[in-house]
Amino acid sequence: MTIAPQRVVTLHYVLSDRDGNVLDDSRARSQPLEYLHGHGNIMAGLERDLEGQSVGAELSVTLMPAEAYGLRDEALVREVGRHAFPAPDLAPGMRFQTPGDDGPEIVTILEVRDDGVMIDTNHPLAGHSLRYRLEVLEVREATRAELAKGHPLPPGTEPGEVEDKKMV
After folding, report:
1. What residues make up the domain containing 103?
2. Which one, of 34, 28, 126, lies nearest residue 77 by Cα?
3. Beta-strand runs (E) in the chain
4. Cβ distance 37 to 17 under 8 Å?
5. Alpha carbon distance 37, 40 (integer Å)
6. 63, 78: one domain
7. pTM of the shown model
8. Where are the beta strands (DSSP E) in 18-102?
9. Confidence check: pLDDT of 138 > 80
């Protein structure tokens, strides 16, 4: 079976930057990635290059910043009041997850001042080219419940346990 829309794909990956520094390794964590192809669960560039691949396929994909986490936007660097942070001890490099307009966003502290904190809400990998080494482990048809939810579900999930958007 090949990778196509409406199929669940399980794969291992190694993510590295353009200098070859490993940023993430699913095999080292013993946790393969499982996603529903064609539903925007992974970056479009990865989906594009995985389309048509079969179990056992191994490939390398390089994504330019615009295809990955986007270009850096200096407008996303700004000062906020110290009261915006629950932690009393703040230091440059600390990261927090906060709700954003388009879902959760990561905030990186750049500088701590007496009355404010300089933050960067660019994704930490914005502006970086990313290299993926991928190995396809499994490809299967998605269940109706997975299609309704838009992502893979744990094995044994009964359709009645999932709200079916198609029937509501």
Report:
1. 74-120
2. 126
3. 7-17, 22-25, 33-36, 58-63, 77-81, 95-100, 103-112, 116-120, 130-141
4. no
5. 7
6. no
7. 0.81
8. 22-25, 33-36, 58-63, 77-81, 95-100
9. yes
